[in-house]
UniProtKB/TrEMBL annotation:
Pfam family, one: Amidase_3
Naturally occurring in which organism (per UniProt): Acanthopleuribacter pedis
Protein name according to UniProt: N-acetylmuramoyl-L-alanine amidase
Signal as UniProt keyword: yes
Phylogenetic lineage: Bacteria, Pseudomonadati, Acidobacteriota, Holophagae, Acanthopleuribacterales
Domain spans labelled LysM: 128-167
Amino acid sequence: MRQLFVSFALVWLFAIMPLLAWPHGAQVQAKVDQQSQAVFVAGKGAFLTVSVKYATELDAALRMYTGRLNAEQSLEGLGIVRTNDRQARLPFEVLSPLFQKSFLRALWPKDKMDGAYWHHHITHKGRETLWAVALLYTGSGQHYREIMRVNKMTSPEIEDGRVLKIPRNLLRPILQHEEQLPPTSVDSPREPMLNAVVEAGLKQAAKTVRQVTQAAQTAQAGQNAPPPTAAPAKPTAVTKARGTAFEEQLAEQLSYRRQLTYGRDKQGRYALYALKSGEAIYSAVVVRFCGLVSANDVNRVAKVIIERNQIRDETDLPVGRKIKIPYNLLEPEFRAADDAAYLAWQRNLEAVARIQTQLRVANLKGVHVILDAGHGGRDPGAHFGHAWEDDFVYDVLCRVKLRLETETKAKVYSTVTDPSIQFVPQDVKTFQMDHDEVLNTKPVYKLNSSTVTTDGVNLRWMIANYHYQRLVKSGVKPENIFFASFHADSLHRGLSGGMVYVPDARVYPRKVVPYRKFSKYREYAANRFSFSRKEMQQAQARSFSFAKNYVTRSRRLGVPVHDQKPIRSLIYRTPTKPFVPAVLKYNRIPTRALIEVCNLNNKTDRENIASPRFRQKLADTFVEALYMSYGVRFGDDESS
């Protein structure tokens, strides 16, 4: 019977092979940008054709499309075919994730994410096979079986016009968090090739920044994350360096910069941006390019931009509408390549990118973690409806502390204590607001003081520095000391998800001397110090590396993070005066982060934070990001 079944299976497999193979027939192609085309061709698969004006530009273009920006990285062995000195053909698989996404966008503009499934429209009659679709969108043709199952198909044959559902967890990581690939048209050109201004920045960055990759490229799609409170998945050997978090940031910023052009009119300089499908001025322009997130700031600047562009109804703008952004409102990374602020941003990024941040510590042995939860006492923090900041983020702290202490060998300290519950997680949806929290100074500082919003903030970084000095004197390596402060944001209601703030080597105090009124506290003596630029660059590198891990684990565990720049080092209220939160700015611990777990002004986020299960997810995300920062790799983050 078994032999009969095997024989039948082989016959069936041979019968359907023509339906799975790459299609035969005329090629399909679509423009990706001004110098490249996406091509889907019979018998040869998918590839990008690149054509440059001058032969000297070809190598730089190939490095951009593959993400191999460093001249030391060879382009050999990638299957690139140079048809002449100005043209080349690149296999789809060697493109950087950003350009893989642009490639798919060009050929299948109607595709979109809908809930747990990617909806792929069979567009090119007779030229798409199930194997080809699976390979392009998931990275493995073998996934055709699962796609058949999900779509209740009895045969891999697919008819023109059909919409195939592809499970989100099977998708290439670069697509898993894309809600919709914006449609394109002649009037709304696809992201153009880097203009001369951006090319100048790219060439300068390429001197010192190694291969640009998306963190998503290193993740194996389709694996399940570890259970919320279970031990982490079995660690695997840390593979060869796969690109730093800063290289990924550079890739992200360049992908946005190339969508801008610069000009000047009677009202002054501006950057021009064409809106894409589903984008609004508030999120796609103000939040992304101006770096603003608070409701008042976003609304204020949006009003300026709306008036500048003489827009009557900002809720009814067509796809492709070009928006002039006043130049002085742009964040440094989006300014022209000869702008002093942009050059300072670039130099800092290059310096930080050279710093090695990878550590290997078994089960966090020897790692010391200082945890902080914002506000407390008479200061509840952000407050909307039945959700307020201090009790909800304190519960996240308790859950993190519990998991670290029961599962790892890390030592955990808290800056704050709620005497009524100590550190016991609360499985409730609503809390009883009280005012009894204290800071763990010596003597203790009661957070019901009238100076809680000033003294309470300063004493937190003083506690952190006390632990840092004490631990370093006892022989602990600085890189094995970690600080995190949990908060809940109050932003524009259109924004949702978490955000991580890290220190910035461009903005820091040269010398720190605490107020004398704090001299009665034990922590005072450890807080007279100075920072060097080298120390700050180390801090930015290590902190950003953790933040990238946090965002990666958030997405794996289904914890929402901001669509626009979930990791930030500066907070902007005005274009010329950025600031860093005090708990980061005056903190000596090299690896430190302020985590805004959600936006309480967003209804969905409020509902999430009220759930004990979600708060546990937040804690799990943090712990697993910490594991990653000290050498652990989870099964679903292995390079594919």
